[in-house]
Amino acid sequence: MAASKVANSDTFKVTTPSARVIHMTRLFDAPRELVFEAMNRPEHVRRWWGNLGDGYSVPVCEVDFRVGGAWRMVNQTADGHMAPFRGVYREIDPPGRVVYIEIFEPFPDAESLVTALLTEEGGKTRLTLTAEYPSEAVRDMVLKTGMETGAALSYDHLETVAAGLKAAPRAPSPR
């Protein structure tokens, strides 16, 4: 993978701490409230999720962001191939934690349990994402799809989206 010119790209790390788990971390130069917002609001998600280069898009980005709410995203590749994902939110604790089920629709029996933690780190935000799969074989299949490269590129775009939110004037939060 070519070196990215996006801030903090070099902080992205993927490990497999156990037979059924993929663990990813990435540092973002934005407050965790903004990274949390960029990760969970559809108008932001469609700008970074699955954005792997020219010609890629997210024509479907449905997010019912509440415990028990469903989400569905479809990534479209430059050659028109569709990659549909869906899931359900299990836990939401803004702005630090989201737990959800993720299913790649062509393999509905291979769901993963994903936990995303956002922590403050020296004025930046560390994302720690843990995905647990039903078996080592499923975990290995996911790794072989190029998931690591795709996640790295997507998180580079998330960095850009979060930085844009940081720079944009913010309306006060309703009380």
Report what the structure shows:
Helix content is 26%, strand content 38%. The chain has 175 residues and is an alpha+beta fold. It has a single domain, classed as Alpha-D-Glucose-1,6-Bisphosphate, Chain A, domain 4 (2-Layer Sandwich), CATH 3.30.530.20. The chain has an 8-stranded antiparallel beta sheet with strand order 1-2-8-7-6-5-4-3, with helices on one face. Helix 1 packs across helix 2. The mean pLDDT is 91.
Ends distance = 45 Å
Rounded to an integer in angstroms, the radius of gyration calculated over CA atoms is 16 Å
The CATH architecture designation is: 2-Layer Sandwich
- What overall form do the CA principal axes indicate? globular
Report on the biggest sheet: 8 strands, antiparallel
CATH topology: Alpha-D-Glucose-1,6-Bisphosphate, Chain A, domain 4
Name the CATH superfamily classification.
START domain
Record the strand order, biggest sheet: 1-2-8-7-6-5-4-3
Amount of beta strand: 35-45%
CATH hierarchy, class:
Alpha Beta
Please tally the helical runs, counting DSSP H or I stretches of 4 or more residues. Answer: 4
The mean pLDDT is 91
Low-confidence stretches: none
- Written as H for each helix and E for each strand, in order along the chain, the element string is EEHHEEEEEEHH
Structural class call reads alpha+beta
Q: What level of helicity do the residues show?
A: 25-40%
Number of discrete domains: 1
Q: Number of DSSP strands?
A: 8
